[in-house]
Amino acid sequence: MESIAHTEDYDFLYAQIAARIEKQIKQNLLKPGDKLPSVRMLSQEQGISMSTAYKAYVELENLGLIEARTKSGYYVKYLPARFTSVPETKPPLKKVKQASVAEMIAMVYRNMSEDSVLQLSRSSPPLSLIPLAKLSKSMMESIRNSPSGNITYENPQGNIALRKQVAKNAFNWGGNITEDDVITTQGCLEALIFCLRALTKPGDTIAIESPTYFGIFNVMLSLDLKVLEIPVNPDTGLDLEYLERAMNEVPVKVCLFVTNFSNPIGVCMPDERKQQLVRLLAEKQVPLIEDDIYGEIYFGKSRPRTCKSYDNDGWVILCSSVSKSIAPGYRVGWCVPGRFKEQVLNIKMMHSIASATPTQAAIGHFFETGRYDLHMRHLRKALYTQCLRYTQAIATHFPAGTKISRPQGGYALWVELDKKVNAFELYQLAIEQSISIAPGQIFSVDGRFTNFIRISFGLAFDEVVEESFKVLGKLVNGLIS
Fold it and tell me: Which of 123, 340, 445, 460 is least crowded, fewest Cβ atoms below 10 Å from its Cβ?
């Protein structure tokens, strides 16, 4: 987990003070229950104003690290000792397998759409974090600015204003592209599908991460593709050494990886590892489809680079969308296909001819006006706070020995439970209590993550969410005993 020192507010003195206290708490120098200096004492010790000292404590309180007790002062609330261990990795079976968990995935998807169920399984922004009014304003303004009112067919490659903004925004991830390099799609998943259809034929083998987003398994099944799973290290991301050995034994046609905040673990591959991956695949002339849908949801000080930023030969195809950052329902995505542009564009024209004009134009306008940058600063801060609060709630209410990932961005916590726990059984028990979680089995084609669950922290932490963790903790205890 990144510290306050890496957030965008670090330039402020109060954030620097808060970051130092946070570090002491996470290093267990300040323990749960320890009393902190009063606001006046902190002001005197640090040579800062009382207002700055108070703001530092408010920041820590908002993150769930400390608590204010009436007429008593501030106390440490964080419980790091309960979750110092991260979940273990499990090497996949060394053979290619077809996807085989469709039934469980279908059940999880069905429950994701039920309003009566608390959605701890859905990795997307809730309505409370979506800038609805500003989005609506961009929609209306883009319609007024269009001679046709945005009702005509769009350019097959995509809305020019949107593509210009995607190219401009590429500077943040180290890219140097133009609007002519971008193809728009109906969301990121469609971008992935177009790329896979352009680069593969039935029976080909695709290398993916393990664990990985379960939605991709149905895609592989529908395209009749085989899957080779590559383990993910919770600190360094994709196991490149395993990948290289596997590619020497199995004819891999394409790789599809999430290098920034992989779902469900949330790890960001270090830059040197990204460079190593790009070199490896370029040498073997194996295309990399890089799913960067979570790249903008970072908790650090700056947006991480992509593999595409190190791609000099066009072997990397970058795919992304605004589904996790602005508006899931708008279905606006894109890809930067490099040397495979014509193949991908041909697939798009065969599949849908063009993407929806109004939503593309609205998102392009939303970027152009600066509304996107303002919104993302708010979203990242809110999700970082919720990540800490969810982590603390799991540590408080789940049995001792529970292991929790420390995501550097994204929406998900990967939780390892006692080996006696069957995650799918826990999922079914939780649904009976109107709580939806994602069982670990659906994140691998062979269902090996039987005692893991994914918890998404998109929902604002409140009393209802807190109560749901109490319920889940009791259910887990019941499965252990």
Answer: 460
